[in-house]
Amino acid sequence: MQLRRVLSAAASANLLRRGLSTAAPPPRPPWALIHQIALVKSADPSPQFLQTKPPSGSILFVPDHFIGPLPRIGSDPESKGILRGMLRGTSGDGLLLLEFVDGPATPAAAARLRAARARGAEAESVRLDEIDPDSTRFVCNPVTGEMFRLPDMDGTKKVRAWHPQGILTRSARGHGPPDRYAVAELSADEGGKGSFVMRRFFSGTGEWEKLVDLPSPFPRPRGMHADHEVLAFDGQLCVCPVAAGTTKFPPQSMYRRMGVSEGRMRYVEVSQKEPFVLSSYTLDHDGDGWTLEHQVALSRVFPDAGKQEGTPRIGVIDPLNASSMCVIIGNHLLAIDMDMGNVLDRVRIVEGSGGPGGFISAFIMKLCVLPPWLELSRIPSAGTLSSNNATVKGETFYFKSVTFGQHTSADARLEELRKRCLDGSEKVFLRDDASG
């Protein structure tokens, strides 16, 4: 399907969901809730960003010629394996870190599926061990459609495993278009030594570096998981392991999440029983505890809470208004004003967007702040540092572990939160030495 037809259909669907209007289009919202990176068959030279006002989800349509999908085995849809785009991180000022995974099923897997279908067996799917996917990474400016392809990590396109990744930008002017950026991936050493490995890419050099045998940034042994959220905050990349779940229990990102709003780190959770209390906490300036800032009972704000499929779940935190949260209730995505205790806006999660279950994934639902200068800026590359910043050399990242101590507050609720959310209070900080 041509990209123009896809955009037209998507825009029409969004218009019908919100009601027909002949008014002039509103100005571009200052941030977007991105829930899909869609590959489309198109010869267009750049991606197209279908941005809608939150809580509606925005979509980035990427022409497939950017990755050159591998040939599929015949026309059997069940033999296609995996072909998808993912938003791995946002910089905090508009740049996106994208990853596209492309892995057709092996011929043996395709033959197995066809044989199973021929004998009338129940529908089978391709196993992960029957796919050897390639990975392609890009830095993208969604407003201009500019894409920069990152070099292959470790010199190969093959996916080793899924690890947290993030992107961090810097500007010599303090605020404004970035002069440089860095991409980092953190993983546990596969040798079982308890050490960590960091792979990092600097726009100034245009190359990946690999650091090995790094000490664990955590006060107790733990691994790194792909669903650990990576946030750009205060000139650092923070790995926040609040989203990790198991095959037996649902990911906790359904009911709790960390984010950055109004320049402060926030933690949000929703209780899983009536009256479904939504609580928001702010990280203290000394980084040693959380302070309750906003709280509201969703059952009073939205009477249908708990009556639809599942219990209320966390969407995202409004990056510009700390009292506003996006919450998923049944098949609706609601913007909640926690101070006023009312619903600011709501949209229906339509089929094809992942459904209520898929919509809450930290991979699928991410916010992106879109400053006004993004329309005129370009993605930094090697040799584009401004002259007053040309002396910056040997940029590095280092780890800093922050473990919260005992709260001195008499509020037992905060102490309970500290005990339950230890995963969320231990963060890895990746800091740019050049920042001072």
Description:
With 436 residues, the protein is mainly beta. 11% of the residues lie in helices and 36% in strands. It contains six helices and 24 strands. It has helices spanning 3-18, 107-118, 298-301, 355-359, 412-420, 422-425, and strands at residues 31-40, 48-50, 57-63, 82-90, 96-103, 134-141, 146-149, 165-170, 180-188, 196-202, 207-214, 229-233, 236-240, 256-261, 264-270, 277-283, 290-297, 313-317, 324-329, 332-337, 342-348, 366-369, 397-402, 427-432. The strands form six sheets. Strands 2-3-1-22 form a four-stranded mixed beta sheet, with helices on one face. Strand 2 and strand 3 (57-63) form a beta hairpin. It is globular. The termini are far apart. Mean pLDDT is 75; it is low at 15-21, 243-251, 352-363 and 386-436.
Short description:
With 436 residues, the protein is mainly beta. It has helices at residues 3-18, 107-118, 298-301, 355-359, 412-420, 422-425; strands at 31-40, 48-50, 57-63, 82-90, 96-103, 134-141, 146-149, 165-170, 180-188, 196-202, 207-214, 229-233, 236-240, 256-261, 264-270, 277-283, 290-297, 313-317, 324-329, 332-337, 342-348, 366-369, 397-402, 427-432. The protein contains six helices and 24 strands.
List its salient traits.
four-stranded mixed β-sheet; 24 strands; 436 residues; globular; DUF1618 domain-containing protein; mainly beta
Mean pLDDT: 75
Strand order of the largest sheet: 2-3-1-22
Radius of gyration based on Cα positions: 22 Å
Distance between the termini: 50 Å
Task: Encode the helix/strand succession as letters.
Answer: HEEEEEHEEEEEEEEEEEEHEEEEHEEHHE
Count, helices: 6
Helix-strand category:
mainly beta
- Main sheet record: 4 strands, mixed
What characteristic shape results from the CA principal axes? globular
Strand content: 35-45%
In percent, how helical is the residue content? 10-25%
Number of strands: 24
Unreliable parts: 15-21, 243-251, 352-363, 386-436
Protein name: DUF1618 domain-containing protein
